[in-house]
Amino acid sequence: MARVWIWALMVVVMWAVVVVLGDGQQHQEPQQEEVEEKQEQQQTKQHPQQLKQQERRPNVVVLIADDLGIGDLGCYGNTTINTPNIDRVASEGIRLTHHLAASALCTPSRAALLTARYPARYGLVGDKSTPPVVVHVASKVGLPVDEVTLANALSAANYTTAAVGKWHLGMRCGLLGRGCRGPQQHGFQSFYGIPFTLIEDIAGSHPFWIFPLEDRFYQMLLSLWVVNALTLCWLRWRRRTIAVCIGVVTLALSTSWFLHTHYRFHTARWWKVSPWMDQHMNGLVMHNDRVVEQPLKLEGLSQLLVDHSVRFIADHAQDQRPFFLYHSFAHVHTPMFSAPEMAGRSKHGRYGDNVEEMDAGVGRIMAALKEHSLDQNTLVYFLSDHGGDLEVVGQDGQRVGGYNGRFKGGKRMGSAEGGIRVPGIYRWSGHIPAGVIGDAPTSLLDMMPTILDLAGLPPLPDLLPHLPPRELDGVSIANLLTKGEHPPSRTLIHHCGHEIHSVRLTSGNLAYKMNLVGYNWEKDSTQHGWGINTLRSCWDFIDYGYEPQLFNLFKDPYEDHPIPVDSIEYIQVTGIMKQFVAEWKARVPYPPSQMSNVANTMHSLWLQPFRSLW
Length: 614
What we know:
Largest sheet: 11 strands, mixed
Distance between the termini: 15 Å
CATH superfamily of the largest domain: Alkaline Phosphatase, subunit A
Number of domains: 2
Number of strands: 17
Number of helices: 17
CATH topology of the largest domain: Alkaline Phosphatase, subunit A
Structural class: alpha/beta
Strand content: 5-15%
């Protein structure tokens, strides 16, 4: 009933909103049709020799955890949460201990992972007064179509590509929710999963009809309706005229009720919507561009996603073409949920149950590879999109956030090490030595160049010659994985939105981190507090000005002892890094945040996909 009511109001409500807000400035992107046509042409231009080589190339499976802390896994030192399947993957490959996310938030980190480029380069970051991530399925914000992903590159190399699980990089739906291609605009030939992310409002039950008479706004609406109805009747017009006028007034007041009740334009968080809207409009499961579950059911979601990946592996096990499976777990993001058989097993409450349920999913995917004799020629990469969400607490007071070891900070906290130091495991039997620990600094940005290198594929300009050249921020760490060599010397930037908060200089056995800002932790703590009302972001910082803090990360990985500002080491290293920052800012101008455009960021009902009623 509520859905029918929404569709009835949609045209009038959203026409008014569009008139007020405008369509906003559009991203300067190539026409979607042109980009896709060129990609299809490139995929069909396979020479016989190239096709023959495909048989020797590895399958690629990328397994992404959501909000998992580096201290949550047994192979990284946890002794109380059981993760035997992930630990086995680590024992059969290389475990990276200095592995870094490009952001401490989901959307920008995942964008960087797929493109090997800082998301600030294409505006997929928030600002202080905007949302920090993609906040609605039905919005125009997302990964630009002209950005090249690993899926684009592997599709051009004749791989079969599939995305399963969480996307959270924008769906770019058309009118009335048509053509929500999302991952399929970025090189994935199929998609099954959740186009958005998990949020607390997806759980529980939330009313659509809300009219609290103790609130002055709702008192005003009721008074206006009664006064207008009585006035029209007093005027003694014809009954039909009175009925039409009352209908127009009712529609106008209903529109005001809907916008005030289910949108938050009148608050500082103008991009928010009501819990009912979040649950029913953002809580979706989609198969390609079709909604198959609305709202989604949390219990069994992990198994549902793993089932699809296992079927994908079985369906393509005998293909001559290799495949690329991008499986993004819904765990361990809040709200915490588990299938009945997984609940109550962990010593760490619901959070531990979620980690163990995710580990079971990893085990099923790895078992499927072995069952179909693919495990020896499949490159597996397991990672978390950023650090654990330290401060989050459930409604019952139970802590449901991750553990980042002794690293300071966590999710949302910009360049704080606990927010960006993540688990990273590569496994490829016969090519990557088993049981190795890699301490050299590496990044999620490195995934695309590394996998192309390991698979024996040419770099992007050769794979996709029809596209303009682009500068990558990731580098290949193939020699580190296969030979134990140090990656190339490099400088990594850590952002808060568009702002540079830290810089990391690595070369051989040297790794320095220069913090331009610090964060307002609670006294004697490395966080802001506990509970939903204490959650803050990287924008709550202290500017160090001309004397940034400098740390030698190999000697002091937990950043406990800043190098003295009057030392020669400090003066020389910070001088080099400050010059890098100045030259970077002059050379790489960032576009405005996509999230700052209200018309593109807000929930747009006319773009909302719905599950078919027939």
